[in-house]
Write a structure and sequence with these properties.
about 400 residues; about 45% helix; Rossmann fold; five-stranded parallel sheet; alpha/beta; 2 domains
Length: about 400
């Protein structure tokens, strides 16, 4: 769509084109579920703003020097800030926290002159993970941004942002992507045949970035199936057996997370002295294969065999988030089967097993488990030990009525 590579979001693309044409919004908030294309649209927007040929909201040309540098992640006037540290949050940062650059570092970068002599763009990824201090530190820049500067915030949930932040941004909402668009994208990139593309589109529930990540890493599909099988088996396990499986679940979930998650941006390393000339760069992406949501990178196979002692708190939290997301899909399907909505089950290959499990579970147990999983995901945003959350979820996962005879 005129230089925009974002897939399955025509309304959001139209809204962004309107903002570009009006040239009035200096802060834009892109809101939508994980994996639906917020980073893709943010990079489209950045390319349009930094394009050297096209103006007036027509979209990036994708051929000029500015567009090529954005596509390859080395444009000096494009800055990226992403969560870091054990809590996986966007922090306030500053000189005292060089290993965890934050909002103050971004503000300092934007106070310098443009390297290329044109526009400057800053993207805050997962802005909903900004601490309150970080959000307050960003307010002044949102109110009075430097000349020719645009800030783009990508957030899964704008309710986690302060009202003062939301009120200073033009908001663009993104929804889940229709299955046909995901299938077309996977086919166009040569990532999956038609049956596999259709299955991934259904499994990922309109999260195009996640579908691309799974299609790009067949090992991830295998690990997902392994984890689903283990969680379903736990419906028949006693408490001791459940707790005994915690370490293996966490290890395999981290392996899956690493396959589905791009490598950390350059900003997670110590900031260079000349920050204004380098900025923080997004992960490289070729123009013809722009990631739908940044979930396009794959770790080497030996990277997932790292000893547990070397796993950081941030990675343990990431692994549990990945496990909970998959676990919620299982609980959701169980709820749908219990309520007779079998046609909306995501993993249709497990339909018969879901039906058998529901017949043996206490009524409403799956719905209670789903609510508990949603709450656990929220708790991970706080200072909660991932292992404690996992143990609690395992102990409260429903138990089949026939489990005592096994």
């Amino acid at each position: 769509m005129d230089g925009f590579l974002t897939v399955g979001q025509p309304a959001a693309v139209t809204a962004v084109r309107g903002l570009l044409r009006e040239r009035r919004a200096h802060a834009i908030l892109l809101v939508g579920p994980p994996g639906v294309g917020k980073m893709s649209l943010a990079l489209d927007l950045a390319a349009a703003l930094l394009c050297e040929r096209v103006a007036d909201g027509l979209g990036p040309c994708r051929a000029c020097r500015g567009c090529r540098m954005v596509a390859h992640g080395n444009h000096a006037d494009l800055h990226l800030l992403a969560p870091a540290g054990s809590a996986g949050s966007v922090v306030i940062g500053g000189p005292e926290a060089q290993l965890r650059p934050g909002v103050r570092d971004l503000v300092a970068d934007l106070s310098l002159l443009s390297v290329e002599g044109g526009a400057r763009v800053a993207i805050v990824r997962e802005a909903h993970r900004m601490t309150d201090d970080a959000q307050n530190a960003l307010l002044k820049t949102l109110e009075e941004p430097p000349d020719n500067t645009t800030l783009i915030l990508c957030a899964d949930d704008d309710e986690q942002l302060l009202p003062t932040i939301r009120s200073r941004c033009a908001r663009v909402r993104l929804g889940t992507v229709d299955a046909r668009s995901i299938e077309t994208l996977l086919d166009a990139r040569g990532l999956a045949d038609a049956p596999t593309a259709a299955r991934l589109a259904r499994l990922t529930a309109g999260r195009v970035g996640l579908a691309v990540a799974y299609a790009s890493a067949p090992e991830a599909v295998a690990i997902r199936a392994e984890l689903v099988r283990r969680l379903l088996d736990l419906l028949s396990e006693r408490p001791a057996g459940r707790l005994g499986s915690a370490k293996d679940l966490q290890t395999r979930a981290l392996a899956l997370a690493r396959l589905l998650t791009p490598p950390p941006p350059a900003q997670d390393t110590p900031a260079p002295k000349s920050r204004g000339k380098t900025g923080a760069k997004p992960a490289p992406a070729a123009p013809a294969a722009q990631p739908a949501e940044g979930d396009d990178a794959e770790e080497p196979a030996d990277a997932v065999a790292e000893p547990a002692a070397k796993i950081s708190a941030a990675e343990r939290r990431l692994g549990l988030r990945t496990l909970i997301a998959l676990w919620r899909d299982i609980a959701r399907d169980l709820v749908l089967v219990e309520r007779g909505a079998r046609t909306t089950v995501r993993d249709v290959a497990l339909l018969e097993e879901y039906e058998a499990a529901v017949r043996m579970l206490p009524k409403g147990a799956a719905a209670d488990a789903l609510a508990r999983l949603v709450r656990a995901d929220e708790l991970l945003d706080g200072n909660v030990t991932p292992e404690l959350v996992l143990d609690t979820l395992l102990l409260h996962w429903p138990r089949r009525a026939d489990a005592g005879r096994r």
